[in-house]
Amino acid sequence: MASTPNTSTSPITTFPEQTTGTTSEAGLDTSSTSEPDTTSTGQSTGSAAECADGVVADGEVCFGAPVSMNVGKSLMDLVVLDVDQDGHLDILSVNPTAMNPLLLWWSGGGDGTFGEVQQQPTYGSPSAILVTDVNHDKIEDIVLTDTDENGVRVHVNVDGQLINFQQIYASGPVPIGIAKGDFNADNLEDLVVTHDAGSTIGVLRGLAFGYKQPPASYEIAPTGFGIVTGDLNGDGNLDIISVSIEGWTDVFLGDGLGGFDPFGMSVALGTPYQLGLLDATGDGAVDLLCLAGGELYISPGDGAGGLGEAIVHPEIYKPSAFVIADFTHDGTLDMAIGSWDADPIAIFPGSDTGLGPPLGVVALASRRMVAGDFNEDGVLDLALIFGAFGNDSVVVLSSAP
Ligand SMILES: [Ca+2]
Ligand SMILES: [Ca+2]
Ligand SMILES: [Ca+2]
Ligand SMILES: [Ca+2]
């Protein structure tokens, strides 16, 4: 992976030619660099697969025309959950404005369409958002890290309303990142929070309602920035990977009882922007993906908790955001990744041999991305934040198999 096999200087031309299943609308769109394209940009990959024929084929990646919802505000992140409890996925974001932070959400119609924006106040200074079930009633709620309160704030879904219970669960100084998982196998989701001050992460054990206090603190390299959970050593227990603002990576192996053992630390990277876990190299072990310094770094996992020296993915140009999910519906995780330069959002399909050649989708400068089946056809769709900070839009790319 030291160099790209393609000698062209244009990252766009490193995408493979589409040889089958194309139409006049198919293929990469390179005509628009600043506004969402309004034409269909679907494409297919297999000889039997054709976009827009209504048949879901393994390996096929097809999207219809983008649908854009302008917000006119800055958005922090996107999450997906059924807020109004009508059985259809909704999209929720946070406008983190000082003094008057808002939750903004759009009710999904189940057909890829969304209603008018709805908003409600939240409080403090939200810095990260996560969907989880705070009260374990099988209805998803949200938690926000709050840098004013040095903890997490919960909004619990009660009859389709995200109720703020004015309760803060302390995590540590200046929380900036959050991840979840059931660390002690009691079927109650737990949280881990990383902090932009000091050198700790805080583990918050899930209770029947809320989280155990005080948090369990673990030392990391100062100061924290990104946090992600997954099973690095394949023992069935969730582990925690923290990446500091300078790129130091701390691994904590979970014991399955809620405790964590520091495993090791490695350097790399630079200031991380986003973290994820996926077997990118195809050796069966989970690898750490990290957006940092205008590159996608892959720290190859050794399957025992260790992370090797990070390598730069050679085919990804100025990455802006990614989401890991099974877009090709073949049971293997894929990576959708966007670019700051309005190059196409690319889907890198996962396989037994690692991430395959990318498929271009549409030229959009996405800042955050999330996946969900909004049009309920069994194939994942994308939602992303588009636009300059302060005047953002949410753009939905629905599958069109
Ligand atoms: Ca809904
Ligand atoms: Ca709940
Ligand atoms: Ca738990
Ligand atoms: Ca879909």
What would you say this structure looks like, in words?
This protein has 401 residues and is mainly beta. 0% of the residues lie in helices and 41% in strands. It contains no helices and 28 strands. It has a four-stranded antiparallel beta sheet with strand order 1-28-27-26, with no helix packed on it. The chain has a four-stranded antiparallel beta sheet with strand order 2-3-4-5, with no helix packed on it. The two termini are 32 Å apart. The chain binds calcium ion (4 copies).
What's the topology here?
Elements: E1 67-70, E2 78-81, E3 90-95, E4 102-106, E5 118-121, E6 126-132, E7 141-146, E8 151-158, E9 161-170, E10 175-181, E11 190-195, E12 200-204, E13 216-219, E14 224-230, E15 239-244, E16 249-254, E17 260-266, E18 272-278, E19 287-292, E20 295-299, E21 311-312, E22 319-325, E23 334-339, E24 344-348, E25 359-363, E26 366-372, E27 381-386, E28 393-397
Antiparallel strand pairs: 1-28, 2-3, 3-4, 4-5, 6-7, 7-8, 8-9, 10-11, 11-12, 12-13, 14-15, 15-16, 16-17, 18-19, 19-20, 20-21, 22-23, 23-24, 24-25, 26-27, 27-28
Bound molecules: calcium ion (4 copies).
